């Protein structure tokens, strides 16, 4: 008995890898060294103590869409009554990789989207990821490309920087633009981003001198 509640010892716990808590779930879910996701131990709705349990994963969608939902493993999580369908590789990266950030891309080193072991995952900017796959980085929008300019903030777009943000957003290429138009817009976007970062640094220096 524990705290007056029955403890279920009929079935032994299944073998489990080293587990680490996933911060965004408040420790309710754990990520394993083998790339698995587990529900943390605790009492269920009937008051029975349950050991950590491996979560079922699945591949959604019939093909590789914009979010590659047809390739990556996903898992359902329930935190404070809210259900979310989340990619397994991002949960593992959040728990195991020091450089993880929600706005960074999590890349599979061996290009196997279902091999979610921490040693197979690496965080990088979206522009770095595009270059790695041989894509034109001018297609990367300003909201993600800002990390190439070391603008790393807990709140990347605070209100004081709204004018610079608007200027950078205006430089985004049109989907209908031709090659020359896209290059011109990419150059304008680059200038706007650099100006935004310089402005942010100047303001931070001014704040530090006060």
Automatic annotation (TrEMBL):
Coiled coil: none annotated. Residues 1-22, 153-185 are annotated as: Disordered. InterPro entries: His-Me_finger_sf, HNH_nuc. Pfam families: HNH_3. SUPFAM superfamilies: His-Me finger endonucleases. Residues 87-131 form the HNH nuclease domain. It comes from the Bacteria. Residues 153-169 have a biased composition (Basic and acidic residues). This is HNH nuclease domain-containing protein. It comes from Parolsenella catena.
């Amino acid at each position: 008995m524990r705290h007056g509640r029955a403890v279920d010892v009929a079935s032994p716990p299944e073998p489990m890898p080293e587990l680490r808590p996933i911060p965004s779930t408040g420790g309710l879910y754990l990520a394993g060294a083998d790339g698995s996701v587990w529900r943390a131990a605790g009492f269920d709705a009937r008051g029975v103590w349950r050991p950590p349990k491996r979560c079922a994963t699945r591949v959604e969608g019939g093909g590789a869409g914009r979010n590659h939902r047809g390739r990556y493993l996903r898992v359902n999580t329930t935190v404070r009554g809210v259900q979310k369908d989340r990619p397994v590789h991002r949960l593992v990266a959040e728990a195991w990789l020091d450089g993880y950030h929600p706005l960074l891309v999590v890349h599979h080193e061996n290009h196997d989207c279902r091999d979610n072991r921490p040693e197979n995952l690496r965080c990088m900017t979206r522009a770095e990821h595009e270059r790695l796959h041989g894509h034109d980085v001018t297609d990367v929008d300003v909201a993600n490309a800002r990390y190439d300019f070391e603008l790393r903030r807990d709140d990347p777009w605070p209100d004081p920087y709204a004018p610079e943000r608007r200027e950078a957003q205006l430089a985004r290429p049109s989907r209908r633009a031709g090659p020359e138009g896209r290059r011109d817009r990419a150059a304008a976007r680059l200038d706007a981003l650099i100006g935004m970062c310089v402005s942010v640094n100047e303001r931070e220096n001014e704040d530090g001198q006060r």
